[in-house]
Fold these 2 entries.
Entry 1:
Amino acid sequence: MKNKLQIIFISLMLILVFSSCRKWEDYYIHRQAGAWEIQKLEIFDLDSLTHDFNLVLAYDTPGVVELYDSNSDKYNYCYYSFNSGVKYHLFYIIETLCNVKNHCWWLKDNKMRSDFWEVDGGGAERHIFFSVKEINKNKQEWTYFTNGDTYGLSKNKIFITIKEVYTVERKKY
Amino acid sequence: MKKYFLISVFILAVSAVKPQISIYGGYNSLFSNYTTFNTFVDSYNAYQTDMLSKCGHSGFMGGYTAGVTYSAMVFLCDINYNQIFCTRTAKFQDGGSRRMDLKYNYIVTGIGIGKQFEKIGIWAVGYLNFGDIYLNSYYEFQDGSKDIGSTRQLNGCYVGMVAMKFMYGIKTSIKVVKNLNLLIYAGYMAKNSLGWKDDYSHFTLQDLSYGKMLDGRMDEIPTDYKKYWELGGTTYAYRTYTDKWNSTVGCDLGGFNLSIGIKWDIPGTKTE
């Protein structure tokens, strides 16, 4: 009895120690991978007097973002598709800078942050960070901030912060 | 490599005696003195002009501990997993705030010498701990939305590795009912890792993101925020390179450690 218990506990300890050796990047990428349907995309600008965000533009179900786990901590394939009427979205920046269409790379190294990136014509990496808020396992809010009116949409031209909020849900297919 | 070494020592120690096996869990706290982080905080507070409330020092951190002990004769072998965390916030006049979530995940293993009496057991213990310190730094707007992207200099997810820190203290077990005990540990956690002044004993907190270095940002947290802001990340890193351990926030988290929990003696494991 005693020997059995000793073996069980030593095994449990070994599992605990070795599981802690797993790279966090692998953990977060595996957890984040999937087909995410964008249920809502809202674009806000910041009022410099009240410090509140004002809604400038909103789209319902504007598109889908597919995140593939390619067993890499950096080179994971991302495919995205937006409805034809949706002109303004974050990936527009990557497309403009890097001359790509509907795809880029992605990675995730932390619960709070996700990184989409691509290489531009000059060989430089262009990274865009999302702040990630987990609502539940299959529903998240991705928020992107930019210091600059990327799309020329801001009503308040004095100020220069735009916030994009993507409410996304993982599809089970 | 150190993990294999520590596990081997632990298993050898366990197999050499006929122990009482116990498992335990409880609340863990650290009254921390985190010198480089506190230096950064002081310089950050001094440089900001539009603060409503200043960012605090590392100070008290709370969390949990869970582990296994083997005790026999006068010896105690112990291995446990711990997590302690705190959030420090600076509020600004525009309604926003700079938030810094600090977390230390670590594994502890070590031995003790003492005695288990009928109702009470007391051991002087010495431990080694290793793990990772995480610091998520982000800006929170008035409406609660969080920006951890590249728009602000200090935003980032920083991580630093603790190679091997020494801990020592007193562990006390007080019998409550048959196999249940109250377990109290009080001790001190060293600030720096063991070893000479080499890279392994002086890791710094780093944002390992591939995109962090764009636009001349620094992937570490400067201890002199005014100098960093005036020089820019690249120049600051270049000019302070020879004094890296004092010019960036490192892993020198340590202080008085107190944990209180419940220990369960597994029936049938004691032979004496």
Note: The domain at 2-265 of chain B is CATH 2.40.160.20 (Porin).
Entry 2:
Amino acid sequence: MNFYLYLDKKTPIHRLDPRTKLFLLISSFIVATIQQHPIFALIVAMPIFAHGVLSGSLRNIRRIIGLLVAIGILAALLWSIQAKGVTPLFWKFQVEPLLYGISTGIKIDSMIVAGIIFLSTTKNEEVAIGLVKLGLPYSFSFAFCTALRLAPTIMGTARMVAQAQKSRGLDLQGGGLLSRMKKYIPLLVPIFLTTLRYTNQLSMALESKGFRAMEKRTFLLEARFKARDYWITLGLLLVLALVIFIRIKGYGEIEGLLL
Amino acid sequence: MKDVISMWKYTKMVVLVAVTAAVYAGTAIPFKGIQIVPGFAELRPAGAIPVVFGLLFGPAGAWGSCIGNVIADFFGTLGIGSLPGAVGNFFFGFVGYKVWGNMGWLSSKADLNIRTKRQVFEYILVAVLSSVTVAFIIAWGLELLKLLPFASIGAVIMTNNLLFSIAIGPFLLLLLYPRAVKWGLYWREIIDNEMVSRAIMPRVGALCIWVGALGGLIMGFLLSTGLYHGQLFHFAKGTTGSGVVLGVLPFLLLFFLGCLLS
């Protein structure tokens, strides 16, 4: 079973340098966060969704449609209750907080979609190498990358332990939620112990292979900034400057909204 | 906080970061489907892991919680909210090993092999503090980013993490501590003494952490729900945005000061 979202495709987005993809992700976050009005939030969301189509990530986006709708509704509801406005709508609800809630829902959804696109187009190894190239210490990137690889293994071990216990007669499906959870707790012990034992083996294996023996290290996978990466980075910088300029000029604000 | 940086020099600690992160993410991901606050908080039995692994593996547990939370977000909820999530989860694993044994008469003055009532009591205190810490940091961050009101998310994160760290944590610690010591994985046995930060005022530090975290969460709730200027038998409208952000900020600074002192 594949737990990861990466889709092995040959789209222009897949071919970008991991740093460019990281910058695309961060830019999407900034652009999505900065505006207040739902119309502006929608304008920002459109290129993010177009980016999803271009990168062939729609399959993964479709998987979380339910979650995106739930987030939209919840954000609209929470901010309608918590923020303040001046134009009454009905009962205790006002127009401005509702608009802000809808906008926040769109913003959060846009950011999650941007995250899904990043993960659909970037391999774990690329994430790690991107982090190193951005100046993060190798040990940190190594830990990050190893954890990414280990997480599905641990989930696999958990399934294996559960199946082994089921074959010995343990009923994991029967009873209420609390009783089922109680049955799962003893299963955590072999899972955690297997993983802890693995720690010693892995650290010995790493040290025997000269982990961090050299100050500067080489990588099997090399990331290189190409012309298209420079163009996209430049384009993103211009978009960011434009969005910040629009915000400073006061466009996209919800008048009468009190936060 | 010297050990937070110096631990990266030890291969075993680096591996423990990866293992903690993988266990945390691996336990959190299957529950991603049970969303409590869609996109921000889901049912999290994994909430016990940062507390227990933080106590066992020290700074590696803290970094592992931070990375593990980001990896769990990789499975559908990665967003700018992952940033306060990472910081909050770092301190979720961090505060436990900093305050254990430094809470004056409340401390059991014993190791982590929790067998006495006093040790269980100290563990519960640590679990409460850790859950309050992660809740107030994430809620403050999300309020700062204007993504979710403090009270809505803070209450959910605190309850969710507290429930599971108290229900599962003591059993995990009881089972894992003797083995971690036997296999040479307890963090104080890995890091050399000179690489561990020498606490300037551990008890004052622990007190500052308690006051900062608990005070921050309470202040955030009071401002966010409107109770702060509410009157008896009257509904008051809460505050959002800069009011909450600035109101909680002094407590956040006090909390960081406590981390530096302990």
Note: Strands of chain B lie at 35-37, 41-42.
